[in-house]
Amino acid sequence: MATSPSRPRILITRAIFPEVAQRLSQHFEVESNTDDADWSADEVARRLQDKAGALTFGLERINAELLAKCPALKICANMTVGYNNFDLDAMSVCGVLGTNAPDVLTETTADFGFALLMATARRVTESEHFLRAGKWTRWNYEMFSGAEVHGSTLGIIGMGRIGQAIARRGALGFGMKVIYHNRSRLDAATETACRASYVSKPELLQSADHVMLVVPYSAASHHSIGAAELALMRPSATLINIARGGVVDDAALATALRDKRIAAAGLDVYEGEPKLHPDLLTVPNVVLTPHIASATAGTRRAMAMLAVDNLIGYLVHGKAVTPLNAAGLQGRI
């Protein structure tokens, strides 16, 4: 009696919506981290040894050391747009495809970037702590005076999909003058649609009332905002980071905030997160959120389902939806 061929095995490395695992189980044998345990790198490698694919969350280092232990692995599908957890060169050498989840979180993340900018500029966190501590006993004309948003200058560093969405919100919704810096200048039509002007990085830092960071993390962008860059900013300016931890030198930022070299900062990402640089917790003029820029139920589901589409597309149909290193795999698989 003939037996049906075994189905590919898939690992889901963190807890996820039940419908995600259910959809994957229609095509694969699925192992899920339903307890949402924080697996060590060795534990991830052990569980991936017999897996053809993994749904990853941007936290698991997929590098040469892990890949050497996982000969069956063919694809790792991040449910995040960022993929600095992937060593794509090592993955290509080993014939492993990496995918991410662009587009589906653009508008939600841009919304949150603006929410963080507003909260930072208007000192929402400071004033709420003041109120909750029972310190509000009278009103005065300069109490928690913040920075103007409408009509101010917004500087965006990193003008990809999310940066462009933020630019449109600033220009069209708040009448802001939008300037940007990017590795390469946008085409004229896109600049016009975003109502944004290209400037050098030093000019942006010197001119902007609010600086928004939306760059991917890489060796080149590591600490690209440090003490020298912060010194270029206006004392009245704010800095918003919804990019990645490590783009900002958090220690230098904490010093700049403490010394009032800039007015305030709003941070959703951190070096070494979920740990924070302790000095950030000692300064009042910073708004801190725990990496939640894409955190709406609809967006998170869409991110997870795109990762599922990539796993099914590649392992069942031979073509992923949003591949990162397809060119590097040519001739290797």
Search tags:
Rossmann fold; seven-stranded parallel sheet; 14% strand; 12 strands; 333 residues; alpha/beta; five-stranded parallel sheet
Percent of residues in helices comes to 25-40%
In terms of quaternary structure, the protein is single chain
Give the strand tally. Answer: 12
| Radius of gyration over all CA atoms, rounded | 22 Å
- Report the portion of residues in β strands: 5-15%
CATH-defined architecture of the largest domain = 3-Layer(aba) Sandwich
Taking the alpha carbons of the first and last residues, their distance comes to 32 Å
What is this entry, summarized?
With 333 residues, the protein is α/β, with parallel strands linked by helices. Helices cover 35% and strands 14% of the residues.
Provide structural commentary.
The protein is of the alpha/beta class and 333 residues long. The protein folds into 2 domains: 9-104 and 297-329, NAD(P)-binding Rossmann-like Domain (Rossmann fold), CATH 3.40.50.720; 106-288, NAD(P)-binding Rossmann-like Domain (Rossmann fold), CATH 3.40.50. It is 35% helix and 14% strand. It contains 13 helices and 12 strands. It has helices at 18-25, 41-48, 64-68, 88-93, 106-121, 124-132, 161-174, 188-194, 201-207, 227-232, 250-258, 297-315, 326-329, and strands at 9-12, 29-32, 53-56, 75-78, 97-99, 153-157, 177-181, 196-198, 210-213, 238-241, 264-267, 286-288. The strands form 2 sheets. Strands 8-7-6-9-10-11-12 form a 7-stranded parallel beta sheet, sandwiched between helices. The chain has a 5-stranded parallel beta sheet with strand order 2-1-3-4-5. β9 (210-213), α10 and β10 form a beta-alpha-beta unit. α5 crosses α7 (161-174). The chain is globular, with a radius of gyration of 22 Å. The model has no long low-confidence stretch (mean pLDDT 95).
